Amino acid sequence: MASHLVSLPTGRGSAHRRTRPEDALAAIVAALVCFGIVMVYSASSSVAALSDENPMGYAMKQSLFALVGLGAYALATRMNLRAVHRWAGGAVVLAGVGLIAVLVPGLGVEVNGSRRWLPVPLIGQVQPAEIAKVALIFWVATAVARNPRMVATPRGLVPYLGVTALFSLLILVEPDLGTASMLFLVTLAILAVAGARFVHLASVTMALVFLAGAMIAVAPYRRARLFAFLDPWADPEGKGFQVIQAQVAVGTGGLHGVGLGDGLQKAWYLPEAHTDMILATIGEEIGFLGIMAVLVAISAVVLLGFRIAMRAPDLTRRLIAVGVTVLIAAQCLDNAASTLGMMPITGVPLPFVSYGGSSLIVLLFSTGILVNIGRGAKATATKTKQRDGRPPAAGDDRGQRDGRARGAGGGGGRGAARAWG
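Above: the chain sequence. Below: its structure as tokens.
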């Protein structure tokens, strides 16, 4: 990704040249990934050393995941997104097969009572739910762009919500309520940008909140997590242990932290210190300033993602960019809120920083997609400038056939279909 950083331009007026959003996005993500490897080593080395294991073990694996993710990133930047409709359906079918396979005894790998992983040679384990997130984004975006007027009616929303519900149900069986909720959030965001009516989306959201409450009520371990969030000190050595230890870690770090590598909570006290709770480790060792730096960096990624979405050359790529950006934002908010005790723990990793192969590889692939879309916007703007002899104005989509996110009655369906024909 470092190759996408903007080099110093030459020539008169070069000092006023601005960094393109896709270049800034790649640079920030690269910095987050490198920082994540350092923090994974810091969070995991103590326990590994005390257990007579390789202290560099998790950091080396995370570095390998980053290299594989870099390959996925490079592939994504070179994909022909104008032809994405040809394989989006196949991708969502394969993702569904993976979600089913993980539930088959003998195929799926069970860890801590959850069956979320499939064994893969060389890599180790793959989490199909992570792949399903991106596959669903591609399918919903391409399907909606073919006829965006459909989403203005409740009947038109059924196919997209139906497939999302099927994926969410399979993920709930694993069980993983956090990821299942994430899928619906991303789908609703895409539908909203495509022109779905607020009243319909609000109704669906209320129904989902009710169903989530029911899921919590019927599952004892989910109820325990909720009660641990409300009053962790009621069971400080049981269900409230992780919540309390995360708060202790963040509180111990204060403003500046105790020093990188000098934290104590990661050594047998804080569960999942290098995965779900890595932000608490950051808080203890680098302090509140470290937490804020990470959150600001991820917020910058989100803002740049939305900027790329606004400049996307057609509706399909705009919806894909929105879906990917909302996914990154939602995962960051979920992880940060869980770590800081603002919501029950869901087990969602911190984007680009937490240990985990499937999450990191998929997120780097998604970053490559955003960079690809940003490049497409630049190329289209350049062609428009050459044709008209003037720089394109903001929102100028001439020659792009489907450059605007049309409203429900704007006749955008046929235009969107032609753009991908």
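The longest helix spans residues 278-310.
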